[in-house]
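Protein: Serine/threonine-protein phosphatase
Species: Citrus sinensis
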Amino acid sequence: MDLLPLIGDVDEFKEIMGIINKEMDLVSLSDENLRRVFMIFEIAGGVVNGRTKQVTEADAEQLWCSSVDGVVAVAKQVIDYACEMNFQDLDGPLKQAVVEILRSACNIVSKQRVFDSSLQGLLEELQVEVGSTMRERLVGGKLENLTKEQDTLPLSWPRNGRISLEWIQLLISTFKWSSWKDPKEFRNVMPVTVVKKLISAASKIMREERNCVKLRVREDSEVIVVGDILGQFHDLVALFEENAGFPSDHRYFVFNGNYVDKGSWGLEVLLVLLAWKVLMPHRVYLLRGNHETKNCTLAYGFWAELCTKFGKKDCKLVFDKCLECFRTLPLATIIAQGVYTTHGGLFRRTCSASTQCSTGEKRQKLDTLSLGSLREFAKVNRFLEDVPENDLLSDVLWSDPSSEAGLRENTKKFGLLWGPDCTEEFLKENHLKLIIRSHEGPDARTGADDARNMLNGYSKDHDTVSGELYTLFTAPNYPQVDGFDNVGAYAVLKPPLFDSPLFLQLKAAEKPEVPPYDVFIYEDMDSDEGEDSRLTDSDEEQDMVSRDAVGKKDSTLMVTKVELNKKIQDQAEKIKQLESTVELFLKDRDDRSRRMEEMLSTLLQQSSRKKRGRGS
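Structure follows.
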């Protein structure tokens, strides 16, 4: 922009600079509006200083970066003050104001990251500090609650409806905190409305995916394949934070199903993975496991978990949304044209997906099992709450490999048993090199030889001419209580062909010592009387569980609270400074917001008038 026509308006542009510097709340602006404000500021500065060269986008970006650098330093100082603050001494409005200040600091850093991707680590560090300040503190390796009351606000759905990396990090830190609390408090930090919106957003994406999703992987990327998690939320977080890393443009994730049941945090596992799916739909792929069905979730704890966390009023609503989501989950992936992943395994041939069969032909084909094709697989109806027995969909979720040749019904449960010859046929027919399936943990392989007992998190079950078949199980020390001394595992697939898996171990993360949810006796889901009786029983049982869990931590919390209070007393001056800042923030917040809106409107009007003036 040429500044010569504006030279005479120095006083006006000094006023503009003063308003932007002192009165505008830049934190709440969108990236687009923030760019415009910085451009206006740079233009005004050019006029005031008598500069005649053109103002470019590069000038605005340089100003942006230098300004945000300074603000980030101040934001971190405020967080340091907050870390030493005794929240018990603050009333409700002051607590809320502290939270808003800390969230503003995160927004500032996120805007800095737009220009410098190397500051990703700084943002993550700051997010952890914010979550730690408001939700949990680790003192001597033990968790300490800052107050006896809940000192965190409920999570809210992003205002623009778009999930961000920062929102997922906040989600994870909130779930970490709430996992150490009474599970009935969960509804106070994760409202039902947010749960519904998140599930709906992810389900909309997955509904459009095919039964078998084909991944075209970038040559400079890696693919992480993950097996059963089964409600072990803390181990999932450890997988991301300490082992495989988070999803990114160069890191794909394929999850082979079984997210819920057995463990105490199935909902947390599911919601975190759905959030990643919404944020990075072409980097995160979620497949369906046998536990993502109505019957299994009623029998193995997920229904009881929801009843405890959301109570009588909302548990069925959340349960129905989860079932809706489960129906949309794809069944398999083919990675880089050579690797097949699924939850259970191979499947039988059916008549429904090819030409129509006569009654006699259909009976003959049902009596004689033969291996199904991917063409049939592509046409199966997966959008069911439960899977019918002796069906292709049941096979995909329940089948297991066997050392014996042939294809036969699994008489101990659903699905099929298939031998190495079937694996060879499937690989050869579909031009594949590798199969990675899940479904079986150490409990399913009890008594098996060392190579197949799953205590290392994986096993090579078939090694054929065309390729290999592996079983992958990711949950360590499974099941959650009195489990096996097993490690979990995940597979890393690297270019150029992605068909030579590297299996890495996942050790159990620290987690609260609480039992999983007791099994409910399912009577009639649609019966209000039956539902009420089940919920009442669950509430009583979970009250006992929660009291026991909290009681075990009381002695540790007493010691850590004394240490924290002593530290807080030593930092009294910093506390006063922050409280003063909070009071000023509460006093000026509404006025600054109003002035910001008025200023933006005025600046845009002035810019429009000047353009019309130059045009005439």
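Remarks: The radius of gyration is 29 Å.
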